[in-house]
């Protein structure tokens, strides 16, 4: 297949990816309206579902005894979520509202950094995996409680038959989202392989972005549908899902990590971007456009550093 053909295929797939995300965003808001459940909490659950590509990769790496590859992809995905996607979302939307409470942001950040901290002894043990799984459910419960106490969600009744259709529409949208994002990632890898780019560089820069294409699609469509709370919670939910997946993989098969200078650098970068996330979450009860630009710039700096390292 020619380079032009690959680029055209990617463009077409991105179009259908957006349409799939439209289906999800519209129907998730209908579910929230029917049950009176905060859209923010449903976004956290949606974040788990859009992380199915990462889970699939994790299982494949487990079978092939290469779990550390999945670990790197999942940790790299945190930079994409908190740096690239959240940063651009805040910048384009001219700000994203939050509840402005450190008590809401800190549990998310601690959960996100926990696998890296646990890995400093050179391995993620089965006990570490159990701890990560428990931490995931604790933070989700905390987020649900916080959302219920802070947001009044008026109900909009939908018939039982209509709700079944809405549910299946969401599931169909998620399946299509995963299919199209996987196809885009495969075509992108084919394009980069044709250009003879370092496979290690592809993994760090492209792969973590490729596996988060569902989150990118949902976030972009949430902007256009004026559902910023869904955009924000989907990003956080996906980040938490990455931690849950690491926990499941470690529980099934503990794995070792090479704690070299690169690992320490990644840990430092991740700690810094999560600190920015917590600080910006509280200031003025929103992520401002300027703060979004800072997050995006930090992600760009991280990518440049990785490119320089592998070059």
Would you kindly provide a written description of the structure presented here, covering whatever features stand out?
Helix 5 packs antiparallel against helix 6 (126-150) and helix 8 runs antiparallel to helix 12 (289-310). The chain has a single domain, classed as NCX, central ion-binding region (A middle domain of Talin 1). The mean pLDDT is 81. Strands 1-4 form a two-stranded antiparallel ribbon. It has a two-stranded antiparallel ribbon with strand order 2-3. The protein contains 12 helices and 4 strands; from the N terminus they run ααααβαβαααααβαβα. By secondary structure, the chain is mostly helical. It is globular, with a radius of gyration of 19 Å. The protein has helices at residues 3-35, 39-49, 52-63, 67-92, 102-118, 126-150, 160-194, 199-210, 213-224, 228-252, 261-282, 289-310; strands at residues 96-97, 123-124, 255-256, 286-287. Residues 7-142, 167-307 form the Sodium/calcium exchanger membrane region domain. The chain crosses the membrane at residues 6-28, 35-59, 71-92, 126-143, 164-189, 201-223, 235-255, 261-281, 293-310. One of its GO terms (molecular function) is calcium channel activity.
Mean pLDDT: 81
Describe the strand arrangement of the main beta sheet, using strand numbers.
Answer: 1-4
- The value of Rg in angstroms is 19 Å
CATH fold naming: A middle domain of Talin 1
Helix content: over 70%
Largest sheet features? 2 strands, antiparallel
How many structural units, i.e. domains?
1
Please identify which CATH superfamily we are dealing with.
NCX, central ion-binding region
How many beta-strand elements?
A: 4
Write down the CATH class. Mainly Alpha
* Assembly status: single chain
């Amino acid at each position: 297949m020619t380079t032009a053909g690959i680029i055209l295929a990617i463009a077409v797939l991105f179009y259908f990816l957006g349409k799939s995300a439209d289906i999800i965003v519209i129907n998730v808001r209908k579910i929230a309206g029917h049950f009176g459940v905060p859209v923010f909490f449903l976004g956290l659950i949606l974040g788990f579902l859009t992380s199915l590509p990462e889970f699939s990769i994790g299982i494949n790496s487990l079978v092939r005894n290469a779990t550390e590859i999945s670990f790197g992809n999942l940790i790299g995905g945190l930079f994409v979520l908190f740096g690239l996607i959240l940063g651009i979302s805040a910048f384009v939307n001219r700000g994203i509202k939050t509840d402005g409470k450190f008590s809401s942001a800190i549990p998310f950040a601690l959960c996100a950094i926990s696998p890296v901290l646990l890995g400093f002894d050179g391995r993620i043990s089965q006990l570490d995996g159990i701890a990560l799984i428990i931490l995931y459910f604790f933070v989700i419960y905390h987020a649900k409680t916080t959302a219920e106490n802070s947001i009044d969600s008026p109900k909009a009744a939908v018939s039982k038959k209509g709700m079944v259709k809405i549910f299946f529409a969401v599931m169909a949208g998620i399946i299509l989202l995963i299919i199209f994002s996987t196809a885009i990632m495969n075509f992108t890898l084919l394009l980069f392989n044709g250009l003879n780019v370092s496979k290690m560089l592809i993994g760090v820069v492209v792969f973590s972005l490729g596996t988060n294409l569902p989150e990118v699609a949902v976030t972009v469509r949430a902007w256009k549908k004026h559902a910023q709370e869904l955009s924000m919670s989907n990003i956080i939910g996906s980040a938490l899902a990455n931690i849950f997946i690491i926990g499941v993989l470690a529980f099934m098969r503990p794995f070792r990590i090479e704690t070299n200078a690169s690992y320490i650098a990644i840990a430092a970068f991740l700690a810094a971007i999560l600190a920015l996330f917590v600080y910006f979450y509280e200031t003025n009860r929103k992520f401002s456009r300027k703060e979004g630009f800072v997050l995006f710039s930090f992600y760009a700096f991280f990518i440049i550093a990785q490119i320089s390292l592998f070059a």
